[in-house]
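Supplementary Note 2. Why include the ligand at all?

Several targets in our set were suspected to adopt different conformations when bound, so apo predictions alone were not considered sufficient. For every target with a known small-molecule partner we therefore ran a joint prediction. The input for TZP is given below.
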Amino acid sequence: MVDFRLYAITGETFHPGRRLVDVMEQAIRGGADIVQFRDKTSGREELLRKAAELRELTRRYGIPFIVNDHVDIAMEVDADGIHLGQGDMPISEARKLVGSKIIGISTHAISEAQLAEAEGADYIGVGPIYATATKADVVDPVGLSYIREVAGVIKIPFVAIGGIKLGNVEEVIRAGASRVCAVSEIVGSPDPEAVCRAFIHKLEGRGGAA
Ligand code: TZP
Ligand code: MG
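The joint prediction is reproduced in token form.
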């Protein structure tokens, strides 16, 4: 079973002038313990090159590496898993392609979460909790109540995502999330390592009064 606490997703537009692998290595050094390569703009060759670099990095640190959208790229670089959206291929189809690799899927409502669990997802994304500008086609924020709902009924690991910052993560944790995911707060920071360390601190319940 896959498990993790702090899920870091790539977002190169947030760190112009800094190398993708350097930024993600800093995140890992700070405590990010799973990495997803999410890239909506590069062509196949670029995707493959970046994915291969991130595969090498995550293998060096012994943490799971997930590829968003591109099952073929995930297979080619021997990623640990893939992440699907609701509009992507069904889990049953993905399972045939990736075998025992990790399959994660984004969910925005409890019906989607229950279906994902029944269909054999290894983990689900739960969000967007707050408004976010990171994802263009994102649905309206689902709010903290969705975390409470999922925490009550879903058995597989779930990770809260969408607009999560150091300034609001404590209420996300209090709502029942023990795993969180962030893009802009981590990779947009000049010090991703320090941000991740602070996230971990709060996830461990050592954040003090919010
Ligand atoms: N899926 C749901 S919200 C989101 C994704 C990929 C973007 C989260 O980015 P940020 O910058 O942490 O709000
Ligand atoms: Mg997708």
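The radius of gyration is 16 Å. Residues 67 and 82 are 5 Å apart (CA to CA). Comparable summaries for the other entries are listed in the accompanying table.
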